[in-house]
Amino acid sequence: MNKVGPLQRLSTRLAFLASGLAMATWAPLVPFAKQRLAMSEAELGLVLLCLGGGSMVAMPLTGMWTARFGCRLVVLISGALTCLFVPGLAFAPTPLLLGATLFAVGASIGTLDVGMNVQAVIVERESGGSLMSGFHGLFSVGGFIGAGLMALMLWLGVSPTVSATVVAALVALSLIVAAPHLLREPDAAERDAPLFVVPHGAVILIGALCFLCFLAEGAVLDWSALLLTVDQGLDASRGGLGYAAFAIAMTLGRLTGDRVVRGLGGKRVLLLGGLCGAAGFFLSVLAPTVPLALVGFVLIGLGASNVVPILFTAAGNQAVMPASLAIAAVTSLGYLGILAGPALIGFVAHASSLSLAFGALGGFMLLIAASARLGGVRKA
Fold first, then answer.
1. Which domains does the chain have, with CATH numbers?
2. What is the pLDDT of residues 273-282, one digit of tens each?
3. Which of 42, 125, 168, 301 has the fewest CB atoms below 10 angstroms from its CB?
């Protein structure tokens, strides 16, 4: 039987930190890979799909693995494979091998993400308080550290392979420290769970809301700079300010989110978060000046920061299917939003305008707010 205490909470935070570190490694390597392999934008776009493809293949299976073998084995094996594959992104000699490596990295990180979220749900439930926002906040911190360290090393002239290996070593160190206190046994309620259950009921609703929130987050990552430079006239060298404002606000929101959720309750935070995010999207489009548009991105980050953690808690608490399988389904739907988001926004922007596409994202955040108000997520 798993015993949950401060050390288990620490091990969960370290797993989220490790995942954030690993996820941040690839983005700084993209220009180097494109130049090294002389790929066109179209070829690079096809290769980039492999990262999400690996995640989408592995995630639905991970719920079954955690229910059978426990979180510790799943997290440690997927973490070890991540550390093994990540440096290969810096030296894969052909586009085909780079795509295969990205697929493997996507599969291993996707497995790690589901495993750590299953542990997070169990630890939060057994601890009797809100912890999920803080766990996800450590993922964001890991992303900042990983991306910043990679950028610094590459700027100093360290080779891409060595830089990626250093970050992979930090991932390994985080998981080694976490390993003794990761949950060894499967959740007692799920030992006899079926190998697969088609998502249904509340899980579909929670997954759909995760899809909308991740779609909004992915759109800010991929399109905020273009919105600011084209619609607001901001210089291209400063186009990243929108995403920076969003990311900093989201991290701060998550690191303080557990206290907020305990004080207001999950439903109320979901409602207020959806409204805040919607206001941010509308302001980013309608703002007459760049500073006000940046305030809009801050509001998006604050509003969205605790939506996904609350939804993962809801997935773990629902009773229509085993929690591990529900979390795998919700995570898969969420990642599908990240994958589909850039393309969907591009289609809408091409057919009308980028401003209209961002306005639609504000409408999606209102749907998230409405789900809480109508009681759609009953155990958030």
1. 6-185 (1.20.1250.20), 202-373 (1.20.1250.20)
2. 999 999 999 9
3. 42
